[in-house]
Amino acid sequence: MNRAEWSRFMTMYRILIRSSFRSRMQYTFNFWVGTAAAAIINAVEFALLAVVLHRFGTIQGWSIAESGYLYAVITLSKAMYRSFASDVHHLEKYLVSGDLDGLLLRPAPVLLILMTQNFSPRFGETLLGASMLAISLGAIFEDDPAIWTAIPLTVLAIASGAVLMFGIGLLTASSGFWLTRIDALQVLTEDAARTAAQYPLTIYPGWLQGLLTGLIPVAFINYMPALYIIRGTHGAWTLGLSVAVSGVMLLLSLKLWKFGLSRYQSTGS
Amino acid sequence: MIEAIGLTKEFRVPDPDASAKRRGLFSRRSIPKQAVSDISFTIPEGEFAGFIGPNGAGKSTTIKMLSGILHPTQGEVRLGGINPHRKRKEAARTLGVLFGQRTQLWWDLPLRDSYDILAAMYGLTPERKKDRIEELENLLRLSDFMDTPVRKLSLGQRMRGDLAAAMLHEPSILILDEPTIGLDAASKRDIRSLLRDINERMRTTILLTTHDMDDIEQLCGRVLVISKGKLDYDGGIAQLRARIGLPAVMEVTFRQAESAAAAAGELQSLGDSATEAAGGLHGPEPLSPAAAGIRLKSLEDRTLVLECDLKTSSSVQVLRELEKYGELEDIRMREPEFEDVVHKLY
Predict the structure, then answer these.
(1) CA atoms of A264 and A125, how far apart (whole Å)
(2) From the list B60, B97, B108, which residue is nearest A105 (CB)?
(3) Is pLDDT of A266 > 90?
(4) CA-CA distance, B6 to A19, in Å (whole number)?
């Protein structure tokens, strides 16, 4: 792919996202209710965690602020992933209905077009995650100038985490080319794994920690980077490794996607 | 130019022999089934070809392989020389596809926006986009509803809009999958004349599938028939009629009612003896080879309605035979309906 082609694809991506957003805004009421609901659900979820933390003070040595940080990072990563690639998560719909046909007819990467369909900016989750992040970081680095390096590193961790979630999401979605129905698998690899990673990994038994690090590596979204950025118990390599894991996941998922696409079976008519 | 070379597509389907119990919960045992086997044809530039076949014959599968959506198990497709399975993006530029059953337009946005999006996808320059949209707007008469959201268009309007969407990037090949489905008679006529225009004026190669045989008869110089995954027929419409050999219907009016009755009586007995012969009984020799191809359908006053197999006897021969019974006043001939011809083939 040359530069001219890339710039055409980026223009296309922008126009598609904008059109997708305008389609969504035809139903303004639905959009704002959805946004508000997402923010409220996430807030309630964290409130429950906060109640537990408040009662016990810490979880396995992680303070409220530190747990809040883990929660905020993964929330922001997810919001970023889902904003920029919403329908990757909904590939099943395209496989079952045969709607992928139309995307395959365009002189542009199918994945890029898929990413722009039903664009849903996660304002609610972004707002909630950002404010939680600000409060947590403020509490952790009270009067500490190290906060000024922690902020850009956290942004890097969030972006890397978004790529990792995208990789996991795309790997799961691509298996749909063989399995067609994948919603149950998605509950496992995306929802359950993410929910688990909202808490410090140390609360889990060893085998589960291994699973969340080795098999579905959600630990690299927030826990691993946090060991360096806010805890300082480990070196910068934890963050470096996290970025590397994201990169590998991305490449793997793109490979499987490409292979899966050649196995696409479409539907009856 | 569209080339299909030995196209074969195999799907895996659950093994019908596997015991029902095992199949139910765990077994994923499957066997390969050929949906399309070894189809080859070439549609030269500027040709308008029809592609027909009953449901489940492999029509959609073939269309999807041709347009690069499905990868063939064996064989190759070339669109203007480009293989859409190796160079999908390149092939996509030479190809426009319309699925009558499924719109490619952006449902919630004004029609105009769909063209803006497509223009960006195909990387049209702003000037070219403007020219092209103007051209299609005139050709397909889109002006009245350019700013209407697609979901509010009538089916006929939507189909015109979809046709413009398929043609925006000036493809040299159009694949149209049931472009007249669900349309009323007037809209069908409208779409047909537009398609004829496109084919003639722009020399666009068109492959069309349909279940409406009028589409085929009025538009296509060539017809491909697929049945049970195999190409059954590839050629002109007239030859297809001849090959199937359905009888033509002839209405013959005699000047005198008596002549009509006599002719009818003769043909009737001829028909009966033919049936007897078929039943194994020895009957009289057929009177004349010409008469053998004629069957009486009805007699009303002075008018006989006959079915003639035009392969065994020409219409002139038939008339000569009939003139023996009296002077003729009027003749009317009806070719068999193409619809019926095709049904015979399925």
Answers:
(1) 34
(2) B97
(3) no
(4) 41
pLDDT tens track for B308-321: 776 666 778 888 88
Higher pLDDT, B106 or A48: B106
Element (H, E) at B250: strand B248-254
Angstrom CA distances, A256 to A167, A169, A179, A191, stand at: 10, 12, 13, 21
For the ranges A192-196, A198-202, B341-345, which has the lowest average pLDDT? B341-345
Contact assignment for A263 to B95 by CB distance below 8 Å: no
State both tokens at B145.
Answer: 């509803």
Cβ atoms of B219 and B192 within 8 Å: the answer is: yes
**Could you report the predicted ipTM of this complex, rounded to two decimals?**
0.83
Name the minimum distance, in Å, from the CA of A15 to any CA of chain B: 7
The answer, for B71 touching chain A at a CB cutoff of 8 Å, is yes
Q: Does A26 touch chain B (CB under 8 A)?
A: yes
Q: Do the Cβ atoms of A102 and B60 come within 8 Å?
A: no
Helix (H, G, I), strand (E, B) or coil at B300: strand
**How many residues make up chain A in this entry?**
269
B201-237 residues labelled b (16+ CB within 10 A) or e (exposed): ebebbbbbbbbbbbbbbebbebbbbbbebebebbeeb
The 3-class SS string of B3-50 reads: EEEEEEEEEEEECCCCCHHHHHHCCCCEEEEEEEEEEEEEECCCCEEE
Domains of chain B: 46-67+79-235 (3.40.50.300), 246-274+290-345 (3.30.70)
Structure tokens at A122: 């996660």
- Asked if residue A249 lies in contact with residue A168, where contact means CB atoms within 8 angstroms, the answer is yes
* Residue B118 confidence class, pLDDT cut points 50, 70, 90: very high
For A113, half-sphere exposure in the C-beta direction (CA atoms, 13 angstrom radius) is 19
Q: Is B275 exposed, middle or buried (0-12, 13-18, 19+ CB in 10 A)?
A: exposed
Closest CA to B287 of B307, B255, B248, B313: B313
